[in-house]
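Hello,

Our lab assistant flagged a job as stuck in the queue for most of the afternoon. It eventually completed. Since we weren't sure the result was trustworthy after the delay, we are filing this so someone can double-check. Below is the sequence as submitted and the structure that was eventually returned. Let us know if re-running is recommended.
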Amino acid sequence: MRKNVFKIGVSSRGINEPRVSRNTAMLLSFRRNILGLSGLGIIFCLLIAAVVGPVIAPFDPYAQDLSARLSPPGTIYWLGADELGRDILSRLLYGARTTLLIVLLVVVISAPIGLVFGCTAGYIGGWLDLLLMRLTDVFLAFPRLILALALVAALGPGLENAIIAIALTSWPVYARVARAEALVIRNSHYISIAKLQGASAWRIIRMYVMPICINSTVVRVTLDMAGIILTAAGLGFLGFGATPPSSEWGAMIASGHPYIFDHWWLATVPGLAILMVSVGFNLFGDALRDVLDPRI
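-- returned structure --
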């Protein structure tokens, strides 16, 4: 007996049409954000200046030429010369490396600390959560610059101590964000299954809680980079950061502010550089927040 074979016509479009992955969708969403792309462009310029700055700098940033002292912007000194005849453009390019170094080291130190503390406090809860959150309250009760000033005054002036001080004042914000995320997911079904399988608390935090909290932490870190730059510039301006003759932007503003009315370029140029980089990180952070974690 012959069997009737029915061919069911199924459109291959619905089956074979390539699915847009989550990463591709996020990339497309970011590409549509003009402000985010502008911020990324500013950050890219900072990276280029930090990497190839010593190559493209027209002068030695530390070489003094008193005959060119306080020269205005022109064909020789494009952004002018400072009170010691040093080229401001060259010092600005070299200072980009210092600024980027501060941002990267502070993030590398503070973000993992905040992520671990926040995930641990949010998942375990109890007295540990109470202790860690009261500790973060102590740090967050003071403005970051004031607390960093107190720490660097105890440690001593210098770029390394300034980085440590800024990192110690930055981690509580990341801990708060990670804790809030951990509180939401600690009662999830896959967490309960991991417990039934005998996974330890630290393994659950490391394998299941932290990966979920990374996105929100990355967004917060990106938004916080402008504050890190401003804090570092403030410490440099007050003489607690990079020491002379370093070309750190805050120190450049400090050395140029006595001449602000007659020779505006000494303090204005590094100030504009700080402003542009801070705005760039904020724009990029806002766009990244909309892509990775629109709930924030």
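-- support follow-up --
The delay was a queue issue, not a problem with the job. The result is valid. The chain is about 70% helix and 0% strand. The mean pLDDT is 86.
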